[in-house]
């Protein structure tokens, strides 16, 4: 008998609630072209219900891809959010027409801007694209000579970023070929603002809400020099009046496929009319720097539908529903030996939903948090949760975190049952096998060659050893990091956190040492795996 019986509605019920909805506005009204297209009844309170047959026969499993229950959040790597029924309907209808994009974007942008409390708006291929086309608009404006010369010839060739705002997504600025100028104080900001400054970029976060480099203070200082300020609010709720524009921001970028549940490959750029219009001029379909960042009629109309619905949705009811799902999961596991729970509240407008953290002692329940997370990922149905902690044999205090933000009604029962089953019937897990024997000596300078999927990298390790403990430095071809790790018999494991602009590369080298030679594999997180060899000089 299935552990998850009665947890999901029938396929017919899913089609009624999650198929193509009859639209409620002119932009999504049913046309003669789609008069025979499937439409569904008005959705109940829940935006979505659990999908039937997630591991059965569907368009993904037919190509060998396993869908999942998203108890983790709006991460792009797991496809963000489920778009609203109204968004699906708008995109379907839009696909049946031809329109002129230079007529469509001003029309869509005008309504989006009015709804979101700005002078102007355009739809982009995500918030990262909004960052990029906004940067180019601030660099080159709408001068076709200057835009055609991008990224090599620039009158304004610097963008200022406060240190607290450096992040992996400021690649959208860097890809424009500008020099990034980091500042860490009001004095630095004032001294660095000059005729070369195209823009100031700020990541909206708790760190940007206070102090001398808060968003309001930066906007005030930049305004003195007539330098535009872009606020990256990708995952935030778009309140009206817009708080960032109210603080003096020139431009604000949002993701379309997060809380607004619009098309996953869409975003919104809001702000000052001339810069927003210049950003559109620099984006596809125009043959300018942003030609690769194409947004279609489907994304435009889908995003418009999402924005319209955002200001109609009962957000308080959604919050209550998410909390009720967490309470159901909590109730399922509470009372198990060593289990405690805690609720984590959001700090700002980004990813604004409560989370539930479940803590336990793996010595008692015989499964660590990392093991349970892996089990859920490999289970049927597949479930991804936000994070897991705990490692054998030395870190047995364990936890995992559930984010209900992108779950659907009914999935809380599936998640609760799967976690309960994992904690009460964990199966058997062995401690990792530790190679026996005295640790080999690996201190010294090593020339390291890394074979990537394509290309070969050369690095240098300088290692010190104290028994089985290893420390040292990793000198890459461009960047440098500290190494630490263990040597057990002839097996070595080294890790590093290499800081790169706005980001970090986490390296985990594992291998075997034989005299003055070593070899193995290296894991680089989202950047994949590679093999390595090393020779001691």
From TrEMBL:
Cofactor: pyridoxal 5'-phosphate
GO MF term list: L-seryl-tRNA(Sec) selenium transferase activity; pyridoxal phosphate binding
This protein's UniProt keywords: Pyridoxal phosphate, Transferase
Classification via Pfam families: Cys_Met_Meta_PP
GO biological process per UniProt: transsulfuration
PROSITE patterns (UniProt xref): TAT
PANTHER family per the UniProt record, alphabetical: L-SERYL-TRNA(SEC) SELENIUM TRANSFERASE (PTHR32328)
Protein's recorded name: PLP-dependent transferase
Source species: Alloacidobacterium dinghuense
Family according to the record: Belongs to the trans-sulfuration enzymes family.
